């Protein structure tokens, strides 16, 4: 039987106390069923065991549980003793039981194999109960902030394979008690953020410590030196994965007994100055965020021969990429961003010299000092990179031909010419394209954008010109469009309203800040057409983009009025229409934008500033970091500016909310469908 109550408090109105009452009653009932099935009770006595209280509790419990595969289908039968199911999976994580006691259940969870109560807010006294769960194979107690003193309960969990005590406190006096009582069949031990430090881990462990263990995670603790790794000395050579990230290790010398068996080694965000490893089985090595210096290592060393993923980002490596990179014949992911690496000369078609892994499909060399001309990557038989980030380097020349690319970031380089080479991209799965810079020019051609899966398009800070063509509306999945600081002219294409497909997430840059903003995107959310030469009026059609969060149309030549139905953009957090030639009033409907936190309307507006709690937070004098929301509009009046309103300068054209709300049934229907994800 599978029982999942994850996020139950958000899905059901049932309280934690009532949930445990129902579970207690449910398990008690199955004890009676078990007893009945093993006895010679008469049919009359059998029916007595199924009390009305038990039968009435069944529907309430059933409604509170996940039943995707129908294991509770028999629960409608009047005779409770014919209900089927044995509880072996219980998932209660990410709830808030407010320190409630976990019911004892009188040992009736003896068949339970999986118990997850991470971040559940249950009382620490549950640590006195797992001994009753003798068949458990998976136990997650993470994120409950327990102060673990005794581990006697582990004696009874002889079948346990996975134990997670992360984000609980395992003190110095408790550490040896823990490791000496770990079940012999344990395969995975998670001890993230447990307050462990070097002193308590500096002694080798004695005894048969978890002879089958394959995964150990002691990340986000207070380990500082290699002596803190001595406790691993007597561990079996079965260990395949070791996670030491977010400690403060200066060196990481591993005991030889486990070095040769490791397949995944994570050391990111420590303070490593040096690193050595002899394992020939290593598949994943993560050294991101350390203080490693000097030239890149000789990748022909046996320790790297099996690597499929290598991350050396955020270090201090310098010098050039050598041909030894070609020794990594199995490499799939290479991340070396934010160093000072150079490239002397690319060699077509292998980029870094003969033999570069034909499996390499993810390459991130951004924020280095690389220069030169990028070669075309035309043949999938030589190098099939589908995701590439070479931004913030010094590459120049024409854009390369990359027909098979799915994710491409070439921003902040010195490329010249037009976007025409991108007409050769044949991939149907291009989702991210960023080539912002200063030197690219020309008009946008329709052949450039056949990509129905494109989520993010960023061409900012170039010299592109001409009209923003209507074919952009055919990019149905587009979530973020940035054409800032170019020379585009004409009007805002109405076809943008056709960018309506629904997706969950993507990486975008917005509000003028140079950082990655990641969130649930839904429909089209970010558009930046600022600092161009756009004219004409802002069409009411732009308010069809119902999920817009941050439109920036500033520094153009737009005329006319602010759309009166702007209140349809209920998700707006940032709105910048400044430095255009807009006139008229601020629509009273803007008072409905309750999420608005950034506003700049520097134009020729007049009349009363609408009254609302949200708009009242914007001040004409403003503070550092906020827009001067109403500055430049000399004819505005209201409490936010120096001119106070009189009867003569109130808004003469106050819109009729009933007409606005009833005038567009299609938009009402579309918004309702969008809210539930279609």
Q: What percent of residues are in strands?
A: 15-25%
- Record field, number of beta strands: 40
What structural class do the secondary elements suggest? Answer: alpha/beta
Shape: globular
Mean pLDDT: 77
Backbone CA Rg: 32 Å
Low-pLDDT parts are: 1-14, 28-48, 502-522, 621-627, 651-678
Largest sheet, if any? 20 strands, parallel
Count of helical stretches:
9
Span between termini: 32 Å
Overview features:
single chain, 678 residues, alpha/beta, Leucine-rich repeat, LRR (right-handed beta-alpha superhelix), 20-stranded parallel sheet, 9 helices, 40 strands, 12% helix, globular
Describe the structure.
With 678 residues, the protein is an alpha/beta fold. Among the domains are: 1-144, no CATH class; 417-560, Leucine-rich repeat, LRR (right-handed beta-alpha superhelix), CATH 3.80.10.10; 561-675, Alpha-Beta Horseshoe (Leucine-rich repeat, LRR (right-handed beta-alpha superhelix)), CATH 3.80.10. It has a 20-stranded parallel beta sheet, with no helix packed on it. A 4-stranded parallel beta sheet has the order 25-27-29-33, with no helix packed on it. A 4-stranded parallel beta sheet has the order 35-37-39-40, with no helix packed on it. The radius of gyration is 32 Å and the shape is globular. The two termini are 32 Å apart.
């Amino acid at each position: 039987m599978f029982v999942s109550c994850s996020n139950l408090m958000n899905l059901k109105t049932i309280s934690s106390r009532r949930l445990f009452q129902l579970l207690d009653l449910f398990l008690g009932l199955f004890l009676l069923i078990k007893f009945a099935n093993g006895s010679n009770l008469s049919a009359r006595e059998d029916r007595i065991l199924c009390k009305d209280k038990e039968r009435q509790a069944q529907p309430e419990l059933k409604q509170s549980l996940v039943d995707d595969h129908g294991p509770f289908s028999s629960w409608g039968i009047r005779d409770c003793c014919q209900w089927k199911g044995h509880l072996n999976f219980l998932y209660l994580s990410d709830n808030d039981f407010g320190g409630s006691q976990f019911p004892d259940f009188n040992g009736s969870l003896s068949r339970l194999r999986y118990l997850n109560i991470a971040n559940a807010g249950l009382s620490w006294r549950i640590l006195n109960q797992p001994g009753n769960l003798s068949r458990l194979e998976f136990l997650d107690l993470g994120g409950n902030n327990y102060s673990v003193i005794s581990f006697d309960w582990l004696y009874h969990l002889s079948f346990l394979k996975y134990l997670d005590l992360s984000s609980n406190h395992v003190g110095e006096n408790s550490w040896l008690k823990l490791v000496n009582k770990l079940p012999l069949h344990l395969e995975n031990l998670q001890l993230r953020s447990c307050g462990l430090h070097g002193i308590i881990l500096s002694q080798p462990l004695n005894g048969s410590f978890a002879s089958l263990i394959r995964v150990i995670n002691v990340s986000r603790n207070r380990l500082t030196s290699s002596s803190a790794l001595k406790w691993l000395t007597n561990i079996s050579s079965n260990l395949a994965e070791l996670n030491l990230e977010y400690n403060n290790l200066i060196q990481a010398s591993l005991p030889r007994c486990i070095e040769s068996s490791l397949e995944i080694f994570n050391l990111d965000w420590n303070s490593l100055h040096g690193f050595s490893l002899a394992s020939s089985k290593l598949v994943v090595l993560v050294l991101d965020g350390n203080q490693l210096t000097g030239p890149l290592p000789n990748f022909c060393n046996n320790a790297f021969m099996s690597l499929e993923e290598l991350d050396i980002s955020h270090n201090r490596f310098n010098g050039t990429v050598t041909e030894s990179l070609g020794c990594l014949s199995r490499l799939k992911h290479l991340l070396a961003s934010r160093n000072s690496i150079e490239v002397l000369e690319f060699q077509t078609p292998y980029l870094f010299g003969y033999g570069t892994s034909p499996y390499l499909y993810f390459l991130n060399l951004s924020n280095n000092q690389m220069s030169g001309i990028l070669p075309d990557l035309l043949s999938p038989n030589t190098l099939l990179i589908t995701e590439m980030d070479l931004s913030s380097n010094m590459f120049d020349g024409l854009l390369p031909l990359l027909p098979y690319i799915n994710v491409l970031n070439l921003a902040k380089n010195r490329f010249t010419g037009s976007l025409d080479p991108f007409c050769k991209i044949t991939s149907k799965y291009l989702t991210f394209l960023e080539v912002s810079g200063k030197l690219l020019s020309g008009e946008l051609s329709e052949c450039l954008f056949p990509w129905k899966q494109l989520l993010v398009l960023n061409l900012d800070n170039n010299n592109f010109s001409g009209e923003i063509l209507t074919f952009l509306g055919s990019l149905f999945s587009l979530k973020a469009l940035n054409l800032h600081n170019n020379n585009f002219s004409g009007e805002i294409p109405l076809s943008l309203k056709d960018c309506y497909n629904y997706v969950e997430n993507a990486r975008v840059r917005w509000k003028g800040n140079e950082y990655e903003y990641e969130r649930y995107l839904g429909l089209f959310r970010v558009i930046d057409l600022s600092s161009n030469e756009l004219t004409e009026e802002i069409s009411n059609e732009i308010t069809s983009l119902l999920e817009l969060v941050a439109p920036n149309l500033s520094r153009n030549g737009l005329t006319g009025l602010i759309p009166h139905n702007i209140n349809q953009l209920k998700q707006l957090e940032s709105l910048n229409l400044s430095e255009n030639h807009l006139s008229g009033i601020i629509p009273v409907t803007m008072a409905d934008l309750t999420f608005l936190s950034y506003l700049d309307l520097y134009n020729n507006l007049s009349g009363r500033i609408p009254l609302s709690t949200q708009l009242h937070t914007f001040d004409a004098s403003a503070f550092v970091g906020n827009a001067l929301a109403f500055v430049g509009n000399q004819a505005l009046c209201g409490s936010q500016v120096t001119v106070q309103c009189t009867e003569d300068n109130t808004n003469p054209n106050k819109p009729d909310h009933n007409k606005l709300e009833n005038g567009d049934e299609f938009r009402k229907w579309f918004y309702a469908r969008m809210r539930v994800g279609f």
